[in-house]
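Input structure tokens:
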């Protein structure tokens, strides 16, 4: 097994973005983790995830980071929510800190939207884009009827904020 690498920090607008570089190789692969819920420092605690990361790092230099507001990175300012654009800007700051001009991007699940945004707005920084279980959007639109309808979307914050009583499940 590979040792978990040292965590380093890139700066974006005065905020610290935690990142790690795994492995060595001719390719620089930047991974957008699968969402804004799990920090990169949790990898070594989950054997399947660790095997996946080690497998990637066996043939490349794997760059992983926590977006601002998650895990090893600074928290978001009060009243500022996460955004696709900010997550992509965090990625650019990490690449700049390491000195990588162009990277291959791997983006599972929730990381796919900021990865696509990065490729569209900074094509010179992206050599290739690999999306795993990705989606271009989640909210329903005229041209995207399988998305989440507005009425269900409106209930999500209240469901997340619901207090649980012992044995109860939030509605």
């Amino acid at each position: 097994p590979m040792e978990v690498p040292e965590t380093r920090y890139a700066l974006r607008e005065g905020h610290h973005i935690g990142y790690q570089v795994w492995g060595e190789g001719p390719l620089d692969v930047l991974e957008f983790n699968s969402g804004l819920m799990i920090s990169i420092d949790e990898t070594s605690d989950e054997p399947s995830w660790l095997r996946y990361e080690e497998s990637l790092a066996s043939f490349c230099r794997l760059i992983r980071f926590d977006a601002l507001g998650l895990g090893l990175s600074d928290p978001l300012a009060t009243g500022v929510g996460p955004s696709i654009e900010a997550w992509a800007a965090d990625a650019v700051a990490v690449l700049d800190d390491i000195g990588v001009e162009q990277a291959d991007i791997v983006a599972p699940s929730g990381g796919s939207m900021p990865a696509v945004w990065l490729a569209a707005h900074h094509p010179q920084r992206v050599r290739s884009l690999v999306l795993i279980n990705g989606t271009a959007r989640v909210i329903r639109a005229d041209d995207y009827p399988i998305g989440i309808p507005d009425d269900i979307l409106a209930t999500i914050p209240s469901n997340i904020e619901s207090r649980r009583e012992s044995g109860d499940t939030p509605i």
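The chain has a mean pLDDT of 88. The two ends are 43 Å apart (CA to CA).
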